[in-house]
Amino acid sequence: MSAPRTQYLVFTGLDGFVLDPEKPRLQDVQPALNLLHTLKIPLIITTDRTPEEVFPLLDSIGQSNPFIAESGAVIFIPENALKVQYTFQKTVRGYRVIQFGIERDVLLQKVAEIREKTGIGITALTEVHPDKSRREKDAATRKSLTVSRMQSARHREYSAPVILEGDAKTSEALSEALENMNMRLNQREDYFIVTGDYDKGTAVRFLVQLYREEFPDKEIKTIGLGENYLDTPMLHAVDQPVLIRNLNGKFDSQVGRRGLKFTCNPGPVGWNDAVISLLSEGDET
User: Fold this and answer.
1) DSSP code of residue 253
2) CA end-to-end span of the chain, whole Å?
3) Which terminus of the chain is more solvent-facing, meaning fewer CB atoms within 10 Å of its CB: N or C?
4) Local structure of 7: helix, strand or coil
5) Distance of CA 155 to CAs 49, 103, 105, 111, 215, Å?
6) Domains of the chain, first to last
7) Predicted model pTM
8) What is the pLDDT along the chain (285 residues), one digit of tens a residue?
9) What is the CA angle 221-223-228, rounded to 5?
């Protein structure tokens, strides 16, 4: 188990089925959750989802730890979690909120400026009426958008989901225009997200530094578990990244392989095995 002078931090993605807020398979991960609780190791959810989507899962697994939402835009830290001093912007549901992201309205204003100057066909999901969401399609991917996704888009505070009309060259042109304004374009399955100049890795490294200051007499060791390309910045920011096998038995090749451990089992079972193995100083996950 962890040495007395070592403090582990476990970061986990939440953008697939490992700890799905809509269908959490707690029976498959409960042994790992119990071990984390026993060893007083925080499980830090690191997700593309909004805070409102994370809170129900935290309640279901009985966790009260920091978490990172909207792809690194914000860190939520329980008021009593850390004694070290740090700057935060507001308090929500007993969590102090550290904001890296740009407010959605500001992002949308910048997007509108780019659209006017370049003529790029870009539409914010918040500009699409929900009744049309099932029929609204991205011209590049030709995949329909669901009502639930539209509702999720409206809950975002520090990122702006958009539909882009055009091909790869169009997205490259938009990405370049955004970079010139210190913003980023992130592709999802059937839409894009405009954010500020940050990612999950930015938030992970900031939070790790807070823990180093909180425990100056301990060595901080970080573990990260993810299953797809959305988790890549988080996996690149930890000491030991772990890639979870998909239910089809394969791994997401977009993540890369350098320094990664790979689970034998897929999904929640693989996640559970990896956490227990690494915290027990096992050689295999």
Assistant:
1) G
2) 15
3) N
4) strand
5) 10, 12, 12, 18, 35
6) 6-100+199-279 (3.40.50.1000), 104-196 (3.30.980.20)
7) 0.85
8) 445 689 999 999 976 656 655 666 678 889 999 999 999 999 999 998 899 989 988 888 888 899 999 989 999 999 999 999 999 999 999 999 999 888 888 998 988 888 888 888 888 877 665 554 444 444 333 344 555 555 666 678 888 888 888 788 888 888 899 888 888 888 877 788 888 888 999 999 999 999 999 999 999 999 999 998 889 999 999 999 999 998 888 898 888 767 899 999 988 899 999 999 999 864 444
9) 155
**CB 16, CB 42: distance < 8 Å:** no
Is residue 233 a contact partner of residue 29, using CB atoms and an 8 Å limit? no
Distance from C-alpha of 76 to C-alpha of 66, rounded to nearest angstrom: 5
Q: Which two tokens stand for residue 272?
A: 């559970």
Return the bridge partners of 164, or none.
122
The CA–CA distances, whole Å, from 18 to 209, 225, 228, 250 equal 26, 9, 11, 14
Q: How do 95-99 and 90-92 pair as beta strands?
A: antiparallel
- Using only C-alpha atoms, what is the Rg of the chain? 19
Residues with Cβ within 8 Å of residue 236, at least 6 apart in sequence: 201
DSSP element (H, E) containing 77: strand 74-78
